[in-house]
Design a protein that fits this description.
Shape: globular
Radius of gyration: 16 Å
Number of helices: 5
GO molecular function: acyltransferase activity, transferring groups other than amino-acyl groups
CATH class: Alpha Beta
InterPro entries: Acyl_CoA_acyltransferase, Bact_Acetyltransf, GNAT_dom
CATH topology: Aminopeptidase
Keywords: Acyltransferase, Transferase
Number of domains: 1
CATH superfamily: Gcn5-related N-acetyltransferase (GNAT)
Protein name: Acetyltransferase (GNAT) family protein
Helix content: 40-55%
CATH architecture: 3-Layer(aba) Sandwich
Largest sheet: 5 strands, mixed
Number of strands: 5
Organism: Nocardiopsis flavescens
Structural class: alpha+beta
Amino acid sequence: MGIEIRDFRDGDREAVLELSLLAWEPVHDSLRRVLGARIYDRMIPDWRMSQHAEVGGALDDADTTVRVAVRNGEVAGFYAVVVRPKDDSGEVTLLAVHPAHQRVGAGEALARHAVDWIRAQGMGMAVIETGGDEAHAGARRTYEKAGLTPLPVVRYFQDL
């Protein structure tokens, strides 16, 4: 049941893209409920296409470091980190775990690994952002278990 975290390889691409869509589907369902269809559809007309482009962009970006979690021989999750030396920080810009591998420690292992990697780059602070809605509750618990401190932020929207 061990979780190995290793460098992203080109052969991991399809698994990472697929798991990102599976992992974020409940998040997008929640966002649509919270924001309402009109605002959500205005913000994200096609979330699958947007998600695919965002994750694919991170995988292709030379300034982004991507690692994958492997469990039982399968890519179970991944993270993407951007280091910002002028801010003395590294930001985990993406972190997702395939639903079949959630609640077994893969997310926490990825978060801890990302923070350790940021520290090893000489940065003084690690940053991870997530949502405050119910669909992000697991992510918030994971990041807090990994030792990160939340700063609640509220962002308001209105359909006009």
